[in-house]
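Module 6 notes. Inverse folding takes a fixed backbone as the condition and produces residue identities as the prediction. Think of it as a translation problem where the source language is geometry and the target language is the twenty amino acids. Below is one complete input and output pair. Work through it position by position during the lab.
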């Protein structure tokens, strides 16, 4: 299993105290209990699937306004595309595609969750990368491989679960993070947390902007969030949260096909209300959540006077939403046993139109789609200890879609606890994805008769984390077969059509290791190898990271090398990139309330591309201050 940097056998209060104990220990102290692989809090050693955990200290130390670069560094097998110093955008020229083991979030094959609730654009079915800001996250849990038993469609390749921030101790704290640097880039975050008795709250706001390293690659984003929690009873808790973000993005087109006026205005929002319970032998929750988005897009035009390719007389507008209800209850029937049963209901829909902005039809619009779909599901998950050395896991989900029919999703695995703190795990599971509303009803390739995509994933993992030891490591091997993938197929004499024709066979290895050399110095590394049956975008064959950290009570310095090999930036014709990036990050605690920080990215000034035709910036430098009081 991929290594998890986790604390051993500690209660929550002790884990919090240790995170405050020293900078060195905070580098490695993450909670051993995770929620993503089993809905309820579970010791990760009893799960048969691979889960990687990125804690708050690592997120803060990376000095990134977006979570995606942090995940690319820290999680083997996961890669995200980029096009500039800040911002990902949507539509043409967009970046921010998340892939895991070669399965793509832009294709709806990888799900992003916030506190266990699905987050994706209702019409297009993919995550919106600019909605995942670092200041939101207490930690991120990445489940490798299919998670469709617990989370349904879109989790066929895995899930990225963002666990939002909440105060851990009584009192108040306000924190301001601000920085400025290359290409007139500004980033700011302001958060305030409060906890007193039964009530706790966290609120935050952010503003980021950049001119970009290319003309017309500017980006501006602002947003805010609020999270409230109240202990209704010693066994019951009520929680509510809301988050809204808006961004303005421009993109200049590729270097070979430049564009003018390719602008985007996007607003995304989400909210949820949850009531959870915890007793000695049972725990569960019921939650209501709602996500929505408004997109205004100008696709721009090619400035070629000989082609007379004038600006379009219309703009693409859309509104989408996702409404859901989720409930589960986990019960321990007897010693070493845990049974979880749950049910989900999702209503996903949206409306898209072209709105004319000039000429005789100014103010009119052409409707492109006004569609919705419903999903209802029930599932059961069983975990059983056999003696002290073996844990068995099994799960089954029945999922029904109003257009695409019913899917049955099985999963099984085991965790073997060996001497000398070795853990051996094996798992096999099915994942699936329903066709999106866009694929079924929008634009000429549309096909309302599409069927779900599906895959089977098999993996074997070995890890070792000696209790109290200074080192740890993990290795996992996987093989997956994906079938019935939706592809746009050309047809002679007529328009192309979306059809279930694609197949993929991916295999690979993921490794991670850490070493605490002494009370100040530590090192970590990860590497992943991916073999695919055909070239895939945003799925590098080799990806590695090596980092070194020095920390004491005043200074914190980290440096790392990030290697990417045989990354396909285009498949027709096939174009690959290989590059090594070097970063350096430094902070100084001047006083109790003031911290100075600076970072340099791509300090080797490497020329490279991740999206074809969109060269990445050379060396960049940012610096600023953190205030806390």
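Target side of the pair, the amino acids:
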């Amino acid at each position: 299993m991929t290594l998890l940097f986790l604390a051993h056998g500690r209660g929550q209060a002790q884990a919090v105290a240790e995170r405050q104990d020293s900078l060195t220990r905070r580098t490695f102290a993450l909670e051993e209990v995770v929620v993503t692989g089993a809905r309820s809090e579970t010791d990760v050693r009893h799960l048969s699937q691979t889960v990687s955990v990125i804690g708050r200290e690592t997120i803060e130390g990376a000095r990134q306004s977006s979570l995606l670069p942090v995940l690319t560094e820290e999680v083997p097998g996961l890669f995200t595309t980029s096009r500039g110093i800040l911002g990902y955008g949507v539509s043409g020229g967009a970046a921010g595609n998340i892939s895991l083991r070669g399965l793509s979030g832009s294709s709806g094959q990888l799900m992003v969750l916030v506190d266990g609730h699905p987050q994706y654009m209702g019409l297009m079915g993919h995550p919106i990368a600019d909605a995942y800001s670092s200041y939101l996250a207490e930690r991120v849990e990445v489940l490798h491989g299919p998670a469709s038993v617990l989370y349904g469609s879109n989790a066929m390749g895995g899930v990225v679960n963002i666990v939002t921030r909440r105060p851990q101790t009584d009192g108040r704290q306000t924190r301001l993070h601000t920085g400025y640097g290359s290409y007139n880039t500004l980033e700011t975050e302001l958060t305030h947390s409060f906890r007193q008795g039964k009530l706790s709250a966290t609120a935050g706001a952010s503003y980021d902007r950049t001119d970009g390293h290319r003309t017309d690659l500017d980006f501006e984003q602002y947003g805010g969030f609020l999270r409230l929690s109240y202990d209704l009873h010693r066994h019951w808790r009520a929680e509510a949260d809301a988050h809204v973000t808006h961004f303005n993005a421009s993109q200049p087109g590729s270097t070979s096909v430049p564009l003018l006026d390719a602008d985007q205005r996007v607003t995304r929002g989400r909210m949820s209300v949850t009531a959870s319970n915890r007793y000695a032998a049972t725990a569960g929750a019921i939650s209501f959540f709602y996500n929505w988005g408004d997109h205004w897009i100008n696709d721009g035009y090619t400035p070629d006077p000989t082609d007379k390719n004038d600006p379009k007389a219309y703009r693409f507008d859309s509104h989408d939403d996702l409404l859901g209800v989720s409930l589960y209850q986990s019960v321990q029937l007897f010693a070493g046993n845990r049974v979880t049963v749950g049910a989900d209901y999702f209503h996903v829909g949206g409306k898209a139109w072209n709105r004319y902005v000039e000429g005789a039809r100014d103010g009119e619009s052409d409707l492109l789609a006004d569609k919705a779909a419903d999903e209802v599901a029930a599932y059961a998950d069983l975990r059983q200890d056999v003696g002290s050395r073996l844990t068995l896991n099994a799960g089954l989900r029945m999922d029904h879609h109003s257009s695409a029919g019913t899917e049955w999703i099985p999963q099984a695995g085991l965790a073997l606890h060996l001497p000398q703190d070795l853990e051996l795990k094996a798992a096999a599971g099915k994942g699936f994805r329903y066709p999106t509303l866009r694929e079924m009803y929008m634009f000429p390739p549309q096909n309302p008769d599409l069927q779900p995509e599906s895959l089977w994933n098999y993996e074997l993992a070995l890890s070792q984390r000696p209790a109290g030891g200074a080192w740890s490591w993990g290795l996992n091997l996987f093989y997956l077969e994906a079938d019935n993938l939706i592809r746009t197929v050309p047809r002679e004499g007529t328009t192309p059509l979306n059809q279930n024709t694609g197949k993929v066979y991916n295999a690979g290895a993921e490794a991670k290791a850490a070493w605490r050399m002494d009370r100040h110095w530590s090192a970590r590394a990860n590497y992943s190898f991916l073999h695919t049956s055909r070239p895939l975008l945003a799925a590098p064959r080799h990806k590695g990271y090596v980092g070194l950290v020095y920390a004491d009570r005043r200074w914190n310095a980290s440096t790392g090398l990030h290697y990417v090999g045989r990354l396909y930036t285009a498949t027709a014709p096939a174009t690959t990139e290989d590059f090594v990036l070097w970063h350096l990050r430094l902070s100084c605690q001047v006083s109790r309330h003031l911290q100075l920080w600076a970072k340099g990215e791509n300090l080797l000034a490497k020329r490279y591309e991740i999206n074809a035709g969109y060269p990445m910036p050379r060396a960049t430098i940012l610096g600023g201050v953190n205030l806390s009081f």
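Reference fact for the lab report: Residues 12-21 form the longest helix (10 residues).
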